[in-house]
Amino acid sequence: MAGWTNYVRYTLRFLLFFLSNVYALSCYVTWMALFAPLRVLAPKIHWKIEGFMFSVIQGMIVTWLQGYQVMECGDDISLLKDSETLMLCNHQSTADTPLVMLANYTKGSAVGNTMWIMWYIFKYTNFGLVSLIRQDFFIHNGKDIRISEMERLKKHMTSSYLNHGRKWVVIFPEGGFLRKRREASQKFAQKNNFPVLQHVTLPRLGAVEAVLTTVGEPYTPTVETFPDREEYEGSNGHHTQLEPDLKKPLKWVIDVTLAYKNAQPLDMLGMCIGYCPNNLITFHYKAYRVRDIPQDLPGLTDWLYKRYVEKDKALESFYENGKFSDEVLSERRLLRPMVPHYLQFDMLQNFLVHVFCISSFYLHYIFIYCPVFSFIVSLIYSIF
């Protein structure tokens, strides 16, 4: 009996996933097409509208992944929601991207003002058209096109990231899933006397270097790398909101460590349908100033490789103890640590997101698609 109950639940969740893809993506694409003239006439308004519409799309993801527990710990990155920030995340499965969107959905204005840099194959997924419209960046791999791709990314950061008022940039520096890249990464590490990692792979530098050197705050080495915490705390010891920077260069890097229970990554479709086990998923955040990060290739390589060695040790401790160890992550912090907590979402807000998308889909169908379709049919009928 329980088996039949599960199949019914899987079917209902799949129908919700399929139907909401139809009306949510149609809602986004149609509204952005209608507001397209503003892209030239009033670009700031256009991109604010786009940010709202993208937050609606991410609200759908909250619905799809309902029931899965996600915990956050580490630095309180919500303070950076209005700051130009580069987010670097380890990559294990297809679930990583929607889970990062899920976590970012709770970060205020950052939810709609994020640029994604991703492998070109994602252009052909259900979100591909959305990413094309909002000018996310699709990167191609290959030694022979590496230089041209990085030049293209640098131009894109100037033309799209800066001009459209984006705040956060998300990159998966490993360039692929752990299970697919681990063996090659370990062979490369052994050959070049680099650390051999088990739970992450050595990151690729190209995209990170291109972003930091194009829109990152210049490297300013100091004797004391980490400033006094009073700069980010009020005199009463409570957090004060960081002021947004009007000059637009990237000020922060957030090192995100995503951990699945027992080192068993979930997959996106399985989570949306509900057949993946409801294991705890944990995000750990660590913030760094961009000006403290070397931007020359040797210095950046050393800095980023050290972060991934730390990440590997942190994940090893997590898989052994079920939590991130304070000993592994005891380095002085720039931001006050958040209290570990489960992500909580407003169910009424999620319901209103669906109401908005369904209502928009209905209006578009009645006033746009039906008349256009009828006109085309009548035109064909009159010709033949």
Automatic annotation (TrEMBL):
Top-rank taxon, per record: Eukaryota
This protein's record includes keyword Transmembrane helix: yes
Record-annotated Phospholipid/glycerol acyltransferase domain positions: 85-209
GO annotation, cellular component aspect: endoplasmic reticulum
Entry-linked SMART domains: PlsC
Keywords: Acyltransferase, Membrane, Transferase, Transmembrane, Transmembrane helix
Transmembrane segments: 12-35, 362-383
InterPro entries xrefs: Acyltransf_C (IPR032098), Plipid/glycerol_acylTrfase (IPR002123)
Sample GO molecular function, one term: acyltransferase activity
Keyword Acetylation: no
Record-level GO BP terms: phosphatidylinositol acyl-chain remodeling
Pfam family, one: Acyltransf_C
Protein family: Belongs to the 1-acyl-sn-glycerol-3-phosphate acyltransferase family.
PANTHER family: 1-ACYLGLYCEROL-3-PHOSPHATE ACYLTRANSFERASE-RELATED, ACYL-COA:LYSOPHOSPHATIDYLGLYCEROL ACYLTRANSFERASE 1
Protein name: Phospholipid/glycerol acyltransferase domain-containing protein
Species of the source: Elysia crispata (lettuce slug)
Lineage summary: Eukaryota, Metazoa, Spiralia, Lophotrochozoa, Mollusca
